[in-house]
């Protein structure tokens, strides 16, 4: 406190920070990247542990015996699905009723804002079928959900068969203290969204669930597409980067260890040679896959939509990777039985463990207290740059021979407000025009609706580069030194607040944006070489960051693609992002278009200030 209260010491500190501003910023950036990369090193991580006392022990005896019968039921389900050309609603209802469940259906319909060419659908109509096993030992105020999507073709038939087998087995047990809902949803996420909205009476389509269980405490979504399973993969990433309580992942890992099931996360097996280069590289790959998936903001399984209702949920995927290790359906059924018996013991919602974390493996995690300093080291660069600009602006402006400053107040305000307003209007156009102009584009150009939406977005994005950087000259003439410094100070503080808020909601997205936007904010001035700097700004723009992320994600999955395939995937990611926002409420698309892109345009405007 004495350092800041003493004017001489305060001036000396500010002078030191401004004189060494650039070296400190470079060191902070390198330290932030190094800190983040070090998070995957096992000695720097925490070992997973169960925080919830009610689930602290896996000492329950799993007795599910009917794995082969469940697979036979799955084959019967597949035959009826082929016969009806979709969800065999009548057969599912009769089968669930025969197993002693209260069975209900929910019809839903949804019109997409433009056709989804990945799944070839526009007008979506379907039916969800769910059966409720009422709790015999409780007042039926709480519930658990086990779901399996009805996927096209031969996908996920085994999961539906196992779900029905577990329903029959659970019906004969008397220890359930919570309702258990067995849900088969059609049209994957769209059907799950309709069911959740109907169950919680929050939907806008007018379709409601005819009967409800208790308040849902936890949910698991099951995906099995083969009779032979070599490992089970746990999927955690949900809508807008939400994650379930870490105890749910710990519960899955604990029962996999107990029963002897091979388990993975991000499709990666756990390795014990953490002290070797290959072991560390494997952990980095696993963690980076989680970061990329979380940053996308899209739900990576049906479980992802439960999280917005504060329901802890995850997806368990059966993987057949032709390893020698095999797991039968009976073992998977026993694993699910054990997990549900533990969840049945909960006295309150899962809340004692972490909600913000990264996982380089299923046995280790990185908590928010460990990974946030990496982001903080990048964010402090913006504050240092803002301090440097504030000091420069605090010096008295030069005066002319007549004793008048070279900046008039009105011109200064116009030079600041004009790029701010036009940059954000460009962002609004990027957000609204692609869907609104799709019909016009289809009429005048030989493109489909989806191509029209994506190409319109790219056109508006590109046009934004030409609009803002000359706007201040129209009203105030030639740009001034004081003017661009004021604009950059506003832009730097704006970016700092924007990235900070984003990182609190979705750390992965905030960190990736900070990696690319912080260098832009730090070095751009009107006096740097224009051509080279413009090229660097474009490379570090949000669109190019997304393009590079597509290729990087494929490399992490060990499925490299050509530039042409990567470009097509990039266009598909754009259309999927717009659909995710329209259908499920993903915030990534409006965040990029309405806030991040306009903020980047401000720095583009500063580069071409003079």
TrEMBL record:
Keywords linked to the UniProt accession: Disulfide bond, Endoplasmic reticulum, Glycoprotein, GPI-anchor biosynthesis, Membrane, Transmembrane, Transmembrane helix
Entry's transmembrane regions: 20-41, 368-393, 413-433, 491-524, 531-553, 587-609
UniProt topology in membrane: Multi-pass membrane protein
A GO biological-process term: attachment of GPI anchor to protein
Localization (cell): Endoplasmic reticulum membrane
Pathway note: Glycolipid biosynthesis; glycosylphosphatidylinositol-anchor biosynthesis
Main location: endoplasmic reticulum
A Pfam family assignment: Gaa1
Entries under SUPFAM superfamilies matching the protein: Zn-dependent exopeptidases (SSF53187)
InterPro entries: Gaa1
An annotated GO cellular component: GPI-anchor transamidase complex
Top-rank taxon: Eukaryota
Keyword Membrane (UniProt): yes
Gene3D superfamilies xrefs: Zn peptidases
Role summary: Component of the glycosylphosphatidylinositol-anchor (GPI-anchor) transamidase (GPI-T) complex that catalyzes the formation of the linkage between a proprotein and a GPI-anchor and participates in GPI anchored protein biosynthesis. Binds GPI-anchor.
Quaternary assembly: Heteropentamer. Part of the GPI-anchor transamidase complex, consisting of PIGK, PIGT, PIGS, PIGU and GAA1. Interacts with PIGK.
Protein name: GPI-anchor transamidase component GPAA1
Species per Swiss-Prot/TrEMBL record: Echeneis naucrates
Gene name linked to the record: gpaa1
């Amino acid at each position: 406190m004495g350092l800041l209260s003493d004017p001489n010491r305060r001036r000396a500190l500010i002078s030191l920070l401004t004189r060494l501003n650039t070296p400190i910023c470079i060191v902070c950036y390198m330290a932030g990247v190094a800190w983040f990369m070090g998070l995957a090193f096992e000695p720097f991580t925490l070992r997973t542990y169960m925080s919830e006392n009610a689930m602290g022990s896996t000492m329950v005896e799993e007795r599910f015996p009917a794995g082969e019968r469940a697979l036979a039921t799955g084959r019967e389900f597949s035959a009826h699905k082929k016969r009806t050309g979709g969800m065999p609603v009548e057969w599912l209802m009769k089968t669930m009723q025969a197993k002693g469940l209260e069975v209900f259906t929910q019809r839903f319909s949804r019109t997409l804002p433009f056709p989804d060419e990945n799944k070839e659908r526009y007008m979506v109509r379907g039916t969800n079928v769910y059966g409720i096993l009422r709790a015999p030992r409780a007042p039926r105020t709480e519930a658990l959900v086990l779901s399996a999507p009805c996927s096209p073709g031969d996908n996920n038939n085994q999961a539906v068969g196992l779900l029905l087998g577990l329903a029959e087995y659970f019906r004969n047990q008397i220890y359930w203290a919570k309702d258990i809902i067995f849900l088969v949803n059609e049209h994957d996420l769209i059907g799950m969204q309709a069911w959740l909205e109907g169950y919680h009476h929050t939907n806008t389509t007018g379709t409601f669930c005819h009967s409800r269980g208790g308040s849902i405490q936890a949910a698991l979504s099951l995906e099995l597409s083969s009779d032979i399973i070599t490992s089970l993969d746990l999927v955690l990433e949900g809508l807008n980067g939400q994650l379930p309580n870490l105890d749910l992942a710990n519960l899955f890992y604990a029962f996999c260890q107990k029963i002897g099931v091979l388990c993975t996360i991000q499709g990666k097996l756990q390795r014990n040679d953490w002290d070797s280069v290959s072991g560390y590289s494997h952990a980095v790959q696993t963690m980076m896959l989680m970061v990329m998936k979380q940053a996308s903001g899209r739900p990576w399984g049906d479980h992802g939509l439960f999280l917005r209702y504060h329901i802890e949920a995850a997806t368990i995927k059966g993987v057949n990777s032709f390893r020698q290790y095999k797991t039968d359906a009976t073992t998977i059924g026993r694993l699910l039985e054990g997990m549900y018996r533990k969840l049945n013991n909960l006295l309150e919602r899962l809340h004692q463990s972490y909600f913000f974390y990264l996982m380089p493996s299923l046995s280790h995690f990185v908590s928010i207290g460990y990974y946030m300093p990496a982001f903080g080291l990048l964010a402090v660069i913006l504050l240092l740059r803002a301090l440097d600009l504030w000091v420069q602006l605090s010096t008295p402006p030069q005066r002319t021979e007549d004793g008048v400053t070279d900046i008039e107040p009105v011109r200064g305000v116009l030079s600041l407000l004009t790029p701010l307003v036009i940059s954000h209007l460009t962002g609004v156009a990027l957000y609204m025009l692609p869907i609104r102009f799709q019909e016009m584009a289809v009429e005048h150009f030989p493109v489909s609706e989806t191509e029209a939406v994506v190409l319109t977005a790219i056109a508006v994005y590109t046009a934004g580069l030409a609009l803002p950087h000359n706007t201040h000259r129209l009203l105030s003439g030639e740009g001034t030194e004081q003017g661009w410094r004021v604009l950059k100070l506003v832009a730097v503080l704006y970016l700092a607040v924007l990235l900070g808020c984003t990182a609190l909601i979705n750390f992965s997205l905030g960190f990736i944006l900070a990696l690319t936007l912080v260098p832009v904010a730090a070095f751009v001035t009107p006096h740097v070489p224009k051509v080279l700097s413009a090229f660097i700004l474009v490379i570090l723009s949000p669109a190019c960051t997304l393009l590079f992320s597509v290729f990087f994600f494929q490399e992490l999955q060990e499925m490299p693609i050509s530039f042409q395939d990567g470009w097509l995937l990039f266009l598909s990611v754009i259309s999927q992002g717009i659909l995710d926002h329209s259908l499920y409420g993903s915030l990534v698309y409006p965040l990029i278009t309405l806030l991040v892109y306009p903020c980047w345009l401000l720095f583009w405007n500063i580069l071409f200030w003079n």
